Amino acid sequence: MTSGRTRLSSGLLALAWIFTSGPIHAAERNIDDKAINDTANTAEWLAYGHTHDEQRFSPLNDINAENIGKLGVDWYLDLPGDVGLVSTPLVVDGVMYFTGTMNVIRAVDARTGKLIWEYDPEVYKVLEGQQQVMWKDSRGISTYGDKIFSATWDGRLVALDRKTGKLIWETRTFPLGSGLHINGHPKAFKGKVLIGNGGTEVSPNRAYVTAYDAETGKQAWRFHIVPGNPADGFESPAQEMAAKTWTGEWWKLGGGGNVWHGLTYDEEFETVYIGTGNGSPWNRKFRSPEGGDNLFLCSIVALDADTGEYKWHYQTTPGESWDFNSTMDMVLADITIDNKPIKALLHAPKNGFFYVINRETGKLVSAEPFADVNWATHVDLKTGRPVEREGSRYEDGSELVYPTPWGSHSWHAMSYNPNTGLVYLPTQNLQSVFDDTTVPKDWKLEKYSLGTGVGFTMEKIPNRSWGTLQAWDPVKKKAAWKVDQDFPWGSGTLTTAGNLVFQGEPTGLFKAYDAKTGSLVWKYDAGLGISAPAITYKLDGKQMISLLVGFGGGWSSNLTGVADKYGWSYGAQTRRLITFSLDGKAKVPEQPGAAFAQPIIDKDFKVDDAQADAGAAVYGGKTCVLCHGAGAVAAAMAPDLRASPALLDKDGFTSIVRDGAHLKRGMPAFPKLTDDELNALRHYIRREARKAVHTD
Ligand code: CA
């Protein structure tokens, strides 16, 4: 199956932005691991984390803490059809490549922002009835050889000719209809491309990562995160070892462990590290009723880069029960502790501990909390295991736990500055109450339903800032400085030899801090929440800083706390790619400001409370809530259903929700919804619309 379309900017096609008028000399460069690992290459940004070490550090210092006051917009590109923008662009030989909404990839002149080519994988064509969870955002792409690699929401890995944007090969990384999805970046290394997938909470599945040959797309190897049914035999001794840490009939619920993000390649040891996800379901008593560590959930697993063979693992959260993924980025750094040089792997997963691991041996060096943690009192360095607080495993009870399923740190990349020795880490300060007392004993997760096997709430920790940017010292095991922020979900960071740290905020402010002290040295108001990390490169003697602006990811689905103050809404503010330089003088059109949904009251519609209650269950259970927000209050990710005129009409409602009339915009079709369920949903949405008006 091949789907996808490349548009070269010939000027023949009517697109919403300005085309380049003449030919631009796109890359002929053959990218290999040496090129990706060349930390002195300041003209390019060749990998998701800049270099294979994932440090997001640039030796550029033209822009520095002294002259940053002169930083201004050099060029910008409006992206009017885009929604959430969370990705890290790449720069190769003067051309910038980035992925936008619905996995559309664009190549633009990195000096001017003019479009060179655009590739649309036409995800909507394979959506129908197959992908009932919307993850339109994508965190990035990779380059290797003469190609660009991207993974699509529906599970394809595509290889494009970097010069023309033409499809070279594509391969399906999971079967359509399996309930999986991809919003992560593929990792290209040593002639291969590695990709995982997500979907732990919306389908019973057994996760894996797969490496493909970069030239041909042929599968090279696959590693499963959790063991399958022992009766079917094990794929490797590692799976057999993992099976000893599970109990009951875990394979019936899939087990989970999805690697939806963290992939790091270590050229020195020819190893790939994968950060694995949480259990399916969260509640261990359902998936492994007699307990057990449940390998390789919530772990860092080191694999041979050529064969995918298991080398070592370190499990951050044994017997995971709180959605404490270890899929967060893994940064490689050479650090010195007690006069001993250590080849370190730095990792700050959701569970709130900052881990320093010796990546030569897989041995834990240190693990200290970087945020409020109460699920464990500490990590025992002798055993390498967390010491759990009694009761934090809420089984058959209700328990206040922090951190939460949003994590103390999520996918927003941290950066490491070798000059300061500090890690710049976006942190969230939240607490949850987990309660499984109302979950039926025979609970099961169904495909395309949202399920965790435990009820939970999430809120800000009292007397804490909601978000924090901190400079974590991995040697001293404490923060060198912290900046309290009014909101969580700050973007990933970029740090430079100009003694700077850059971070975007959900508030729409793009800020630069003094890397040593944390003092704010510059800010720019983008007029829309920022979720993507910035990159930097130098062309024609000019250092540039580029950033995608488009509030995205999980938090952008809901108005809780952020968008209800700022009014970041679907379709209201223009999504953009903005590039800054010293003395940049481009004038960016003003954003419209806050845009709040205006719920429509349909006076002729008689809301039936029982129907509306049934609709609430469909809304929450069939994944509507993931994009359209809790209580049908939406934010930047998808339209607010209470305010949609198209939904007032019964036939219009059915054509969109069941028949997929808006597939092109990323609204999946739900062909299995019955007339009764559709009707119940309508009652629920109309009731929520009325509530909003009555309580205003
Ligand atoms: Ca999860």
Describe the structure.
This protein is mainly β and about 700 residues long. Helices cover about 10% and strands about 30% of the residues. It contains eight helices and 41 strands. Strands 1-7-6-5-4 form a five-stranded antiparallel β-sheet, with no helix packed on it. It has a five-stranded mixed β-sheet with strand order 2-35-36-37-38, with no helix packed on it. A hairpin with a 5-residue loop joins strand 20 and strand 21. The longest helix is centred in the C-terminal third of the chain and has 21 residues, at about 675-695. It is globular, with a radius of gyration of 24 Å. The chain starts with a strand and ends with a helix. Residues about 10-25 have low confidence and may be disordered. Bound molecules: calcium ion. Calcium ion binds near residues 277, 278, 323 and 325. Calcium ion binds near residues 201, 277, 278, 323 and 325.
Write a concise keyword list for the protein shown above:
696 residues; mainly beta; five-stranded mixed sheet; globular; binds calcium ion
Strand order of the largest sheet: 1-7-6-5-4
Q: Report mean pLDDT, rounded to a whole number.
A: 92
Strand content: 25-35%
Number of strands: 41
By helix and strand content, what is the structural category?
mainly beta
Rg from alpha-carbon coordinates: 24 Å
What is the overall shape?
Answer: globular
Unreliable spans are: 10-27
Distance between the termini: 51 Å
What compounds sit in this structure? calcium ion
Helix percent reads 10-25%
Biggest β-sheet description: 5 strands, antiparallel
Number of helices, counting only DSSP H or I runs of 4 residues or more:
8
